[in-house]
Amino acid sequence: MIKRLTLVLALLALVAAPFAEPFQKSGTADAASPHFSDIQPSQEAAVNRLVDEDVLAGYEDGTFRPDKNVSRAEAVTMIGRITGFSGYTSPDFSDVSDSDYFVQMVAGAVHDEITRGYEDNTFRPHRDVTRGEMATFLTRAFTFTNRDGEANFWDIYPGKLHATGTEVITTAGIANGYPDGSFRPDQSITRYEMVLFLDRVLHPEERVSNDGSPEVEGMTGETRVVTASSGLNVRPGPNTDGSPIDRIASGTEVDVLETVNGGWALILHNGEFAYVSNSYLRSPGGSLAGKTIVVDPGHGGHDPGASAYGVVEKNVVLNTGNYLAPMLEAQGAHVIQTRSTDRFISLSGRTNMANNAGADAFISIHANAAGSSAAHGTETYWSSNYSAAESRELAEKINSELVRELNTRDRGAKQANFHVTRESRMPSVLVELGFVTNYSEAQQLNSASTQRRAAEAITRGTVDFFN
Ligand SMILES: [Zn+2]
């Protein structure tokens, strides 16, 4: 009997190797030295231990692929390599055949009652295994002792699938969930998470306390700035239940570890995990949240604007405006486009749109023309009629960003008496991206890449102005 089992396992090793990936056995290698090019230093010890113990292997290209998901067939194979299985019951799953490389491992898992497959008589070997399923598999494959009291995860509750398995492996120190207090039972398990679980199964000294520390190393926060003018409530959970535990002042920077439950940001507050509403946070690089900005591509319809060398101003500026609008929106602005298609709008129609909306900025986009084909460069106009100082500042910031981005001659920010800047009551500018009457600038202005980069430059200048 023992001989027979050994033979089966030897065959299994041969059969199973090509599926999972060829073994990168270290043999005499020092377990502390990294075997793989794509794992973090903090991941090396556990990964190398399990590879040295033949539980799983790396890939032929020298990678380990720690973030790759694990299939159900791979999961039972890894477990089988540890337990050896006590016998094999040929499965009659409709989606597992005798020629499948994993058939023996599935047979072992069925014999040892680690899995029964699905009610429709399938095993779904190629489906990703979830963290919850893995918890159940491990609970059936190994015997654990509770060393840590009880597990409390907000996404695990009585009756939830895999709740028992999750509780067992957590209190045994095999898993410890995520810092936001979740276990994420329905999330696919990664190869590195699998390594952590199995390493703790095999090596009791590696087991962890269920103290809410991160399951996966390297979770770092992203800095955000509080925008709520009266301060932002800090709450113990990702919901509005109960009373806030504190309030953070507007302008305070917080580190957001992650966003959960549709719009709650997990932060560390006085050393404790806490939540704030994500709606009142902006990126520190500056944002246009709460700002209404009018994007005004000049001309349109029967008015082509300037044209030369086959390049027509109304098209260049329309395309640039259509790139600009979503970029400003991505910074949180409410954007009004005077036109997003090739149609004519009167000058007063444009300024009325901006004034009626109570806009915070007005940006008119044009391309220049001159009698001499030698004239070239970028200039931006402002008017002293309304918001003079702010209009000038906005013009200077946008013009310098455009010159830098497009590498054009800096013709400066200038005062002028154009209708759209004169009659708009908010900070307003009129940019002349370049000259269609200059051959090389005309070619440049006609390219989608230049139009997109011009929009990026205008966005940067605008963000700079408001922040
Ligand atoms: Zn024009």
Overview of the structural elements:
The chain is of the alpha/beta class and 467 residues long. The protein folds into three domains: 2-206, no CATH class; 222-282, SH3 Domains (SH3 type barrels, Roll); 292-466, Zn-dependent exopeptidases (Aminopeptidase), CATH 3.40.630. It has 13 helices and 15 strands. The strands form four sheets. Strands 11-8-12-15-13-14 form a six-stranded mixed sheet, with helices on both faces. Strands 6-5-4-1-7 form a five-stranded antiparallel sheet, with no helix packed on it. Helix 2 packs across helix 7, helix 3 crosses helix 4 (103-111) and helix 10 runs antiparallel to helix 13 (448-466). The protein is elongated and about 90 Å long. It starts with a helix and ends with a helix. Mean pLDDT is 86; it is low at 1-32 and 212-219. The protein binds zinc ion (ZN). Residues 298-299, 305, 313, 366 line the site of zinc ion (ZN). GO terms for molecular function: N-acetylmuramoyl-L-alanine amidase activity. Residues 221-285 form the SH3b domain. This is N-acetylmuramoyl-L-alanine amidase. InterPro entries: MurNAc-LAA_cat (IPR002508), N-acetylmuramoyl_amidase_3 (IPR050695), SH3-like_bac-type (IPR003646), SLH_dom (IPR001119). Pfam families: Amidase_3, SH3_3, SLH.
